[in-house]
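User: Here's a structure from my thesis project, written as structure tokens. My advisor, Dr. K., wants to see whether a designed sequence matches the one we expressed. Can you design one independently, without my sequence as a hint?
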């Protein structure tokens, strides 16, 4: 008997179902009703609802509610600081049964080797990990990346069963001005999904961007921006991560009417936040707590997300649909009490069935040894450019201050919370080193350094003391990448991330516990930022205050607040 024949027999009741969830209700995302019903499952597929069923295995879920498995529509697993296998074990118990990831971070360090590592891992995980091929490697010509991925290197991955399409197209000026490299990638994926990334883009420039058949965007930071993009056919991915927190700003669009054009994503979320708050379940709880209708947010978390990315087999509790299911205590609390991935109940024993995948990039940190004098900034006339940190956002501001000086060197200004920041090339290509200033960290002493430095992932270090900055940067080379905190010449906290300088080889529980002590060490330096390490990681991104695009297809260089 074929699987199809077996499903039909079990759905009609001629044969007992493989598994029956009995005594509960399911949330019907079509009508918005809570329906009392058995749920019959054959293999990976739901085969019966709104009927009574017999099963070879029966689980009593009396008093519980079944909802479709949650789909995170845009994230970088690397930002969880653990490998895909550990991410699977960490996040799946919260009800996230599908994730659509962009291995953009590891691709910028290792190129195709990094993408292959993710695809190999995705074939082993219990969670369904789908991969978007990184479109912007290198992410910018203004920084040294570890790899280069022209279209010729992406095409061999295009037909992989885990690949959905082309990942977030961040170079929107290149799209609008028809940069040849951008055009080659867009042309190759015109019949597939192309994910967007267009912060604050509007008007005719947005129209031109969307004319490239780019369909989704996770960068909206206001309801007005989201509404323009929805009206122009985009599917908006409402983001709430460890640094970028847009959920509250976008709650006005989380309505039943707009829910078919919305989905949820985290983008970047670390194990500590997952342990303390949850994952997509947190977004659902928070939205409902602030008055969003449960039907709207549960649709965004499942069926609307599935449709946006062409996953036509999941997102509803209905016969013929993939048995990705979450048993929750209530719609409001959204506490996952049981999770089923493709019909399999998620347990420790299930995770033990996965085959391991060998780690890659264990020697990717090739930065030169630095000394305190390397962090000096010569005195310049007038005001000094300063990167302004905006808590809760990855976007920063271009500020200017007249900073104190000592001899021929510009000094930090603790009274105005202006400290030093540096980027050190770590891919072993040119040894570049650039220094500048940043405001908003709150550091009164010491230094924090990281090999997670979006998007090219060079070493980024912030600090008050040049000696401590050098100690922190050099320690990263010794531990093969990660985060380091230094105070008065001593390392007071660190976490090694040897997989491409981005991910740990340890279980997520160890990473979570280490992050607790690491955060405590950072707070001892004076910072009050909720996520000081991810904030360091995002500092190398350029600032574009007005998004004025030049005729040459690049944002005007004088609009950037660049380091160096």
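Assistant: Designed independently from the structure alone:
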């Amino acid at each position: 008997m074929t699987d199809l024949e077996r499903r039909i027999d079990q759905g009609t009741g001629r044969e007992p179902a493989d598994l029956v969830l009995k005594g509960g209700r399911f949330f019907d995302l079509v009508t918005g009703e809570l329906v009392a019903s058995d749920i019959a499952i054959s293999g990976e597929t739901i085969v019966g609802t709104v009927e009574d069923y017999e099963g070879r295995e029966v689980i009593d879920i009396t008093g519980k509610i079944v909802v479709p498995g949650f789909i995170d529509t845009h994230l970088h697993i690397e930002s969880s600081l653990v490998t895909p296998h550990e991410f699977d074990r960490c996040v799946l118990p919260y009800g996230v049964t599908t994730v659509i990831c962009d291995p953009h971070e590891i691709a910028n360090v290792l190129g195709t080797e990094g993408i292959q590592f993710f695809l190999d891992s995705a074939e082993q995980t219990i969670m369904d990990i789908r991969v978007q091929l990184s479109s912007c490697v290198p992410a910018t010509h203004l920084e040294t990346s570890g790899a280069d991925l022209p279209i010729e290197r992406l095409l061999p991955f295009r037909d992989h069963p885990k690949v959905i399409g082309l990942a977030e197209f961040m170079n929107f000026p290149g799209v609008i001005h028809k940069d040849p490299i951008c055009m080659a990638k867009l042309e190759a994926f015109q019949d597939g999904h192309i994910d967007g990334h267009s912060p604050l883009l509007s008007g005719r420039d947005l129209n031109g961007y969307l004319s490239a058949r780019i369909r989704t965007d996770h960068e909206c930071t206001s309801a007005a921006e989201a509404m323009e993009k929805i009206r122009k056919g985009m599917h908006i991915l409402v983001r709430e991560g460890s640094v970028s927190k847009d959920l509250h700003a976008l709650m006005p669009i989380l309505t039943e009417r707009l829910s078919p054009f919305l989905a949820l994503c985290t983008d970047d979320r670390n194990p500590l936040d997952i342990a303390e708050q949850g994952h997509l379940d947190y977004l659902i709880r928070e939205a409902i707590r602030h008055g969003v209708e449960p039907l709207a947010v549960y649709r965004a978390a499942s069926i609307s997300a599935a449709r946006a990315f062409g996953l036509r087999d999941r997102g509803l509790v209905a016969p013929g649909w993939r048995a990705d299911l979450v048993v929750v205590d209530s719609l409001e609390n959204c506490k996952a009490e049981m999770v089923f991935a493709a019909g399999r109940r998620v347990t420790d024993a299930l995770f033990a069935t996965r085959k391991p995948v060998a780690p890659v990039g264990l020697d990717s940190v090739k930065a030169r040894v630095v000394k305190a004098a390397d962090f000096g900034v010569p005195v310049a006339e007038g005001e000094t450019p300063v990167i302004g940190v905006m808590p809760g956002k990855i976007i920063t501001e271009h500020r200017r201050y007249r900073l104190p000086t000592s001899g021929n060197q510009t000094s930090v200004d603790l009274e105005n919370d202006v400290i030093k920041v540096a980027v050190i090339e770590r891919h072993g290509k040119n040894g570049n080193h650039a220094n500048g200033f940043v405001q908003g960290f709150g550091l009164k002493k010491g230094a924090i350094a990281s090999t997670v430095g979006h998007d090219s992932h060079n070493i980024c270090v912030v600090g008050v003391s040049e000696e401590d900055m050098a100690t922190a940067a050099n320690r990263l080379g010794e531990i093969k990448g990660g985060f380091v905190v230094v105070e008065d010449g001593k390392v007071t906290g660190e976490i090694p991330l040897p997989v491409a300088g981005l991910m740990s080889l340890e279980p997520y529980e160890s990473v979570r516990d280490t992050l607790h002590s690491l955060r405590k060490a950072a707070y001892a330096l004076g910072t009050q930022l909720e996520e000081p390490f991810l904030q360091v990681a995002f500092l190398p991104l350029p600032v574009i205050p007005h998004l004025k695009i030049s005729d040459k297809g690049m944002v005007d260089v004088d609009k950037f607040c660049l380091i160096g």
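When you compare it with your expressed construct, this may help: Residues 508-523 form the longest helix (16 residues).
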